[in-house]
Here is the input.
Amino acid sequence: MVKPQNGIIKVGMAEMGVTKPPVKLVAMGLGSCIGVGLYDPVAKIGGLIHIMLPEFREGMHGENKAKYADTGIPLLLDELVKIGAMKSRIIAKLAGGAQMFATAMQSPLLAVGDRNIVACKGKLQDLKIPVLGELVGGNTGKTFEMDLIAGAFTVREIGKEPVPI
Amino acid sequence: MSNLRELTELQESALKEIGNIGAGNAATSLSVMVNKVVDVTVPTCIRASFSEVPGMVGGEEIETAGILLGVEGDVLGKMMLLLSVDDSLALIRLLMNIERPNDDPLNELEQSALREVGNIITSSYLNSLAGFTNMKIIPTVPMLSIDMAGALLNFALMEQALEGDDVLVIQTRFKVEGREINGLFLFLPSQASLDGVFQRLGI
Here is the structure.
């Protein structure tokens, strides 16, 4: 779990954080990775996870569950409930899942962004968490920020105005 | 939470030595291309968690030109050349001997020139590794993207993410004399491949 610094929890690759206002949450430079933000709009409690891969498979190494969509999202939900969020109120928004490099050859590895999107949405559906906003896919890097007081979710891209989702 | 083994002193110095010679070869190749002296630093080997890697290249949101190659054969991994946007344009001016405004997007020929730089640096570097280990090591076709550094690294680190919770980053900085072009070159080998390299070297 990432701790806040100067009022912001900066969630890096394969990390997650949960907080109450006025602390903000941000995942910077999302490429094929996905930032999944969960939010309880009544308690104004939020959490953000920076997912690198769709699913944990046996035989892989590493213990960090926050790296995968299928193991990370339930973990984030648990942590949110622990600090006072109510599961039935939680909504999700997501950003990322781009294909940053293009070649003539298409391979399943290159399409990891797409597979991340499918895995995140599938897991959120399993958990019955509605997805109320998203900016996913494409081929540009994104920064995803959550302001818990306003309930505002914003995505920034290079050379563009920030977009609310 | 980490499962990448600590390198022994001998292993680390072997990686540095191979990297040093590889980077020297790469500098010579680049120097011939641009007809300028190219300086390289001694490589550093840093074991890092994924969230720490963007900090090594200036931060997640810094707009960066990234040339990425896969490493295949007996050693698996990724090679990535990172340049600031200004430096990538300065390099293009040198390579193609042209003047160009800063705000024009890169045309196909210019993109191709940058990919070729990545190709030549990577090949020189890998030749050193192949020579030391007598292993067959092949770079894939270079890919170019200009965007947030963090976003470029997401993809470069994906295979290491399948293997464990951290990554060995072998980084070399290079500088083209007189033109203030600073580049950063990352070699991201898989853990299994590193084990193979050490086994081959008997260390």
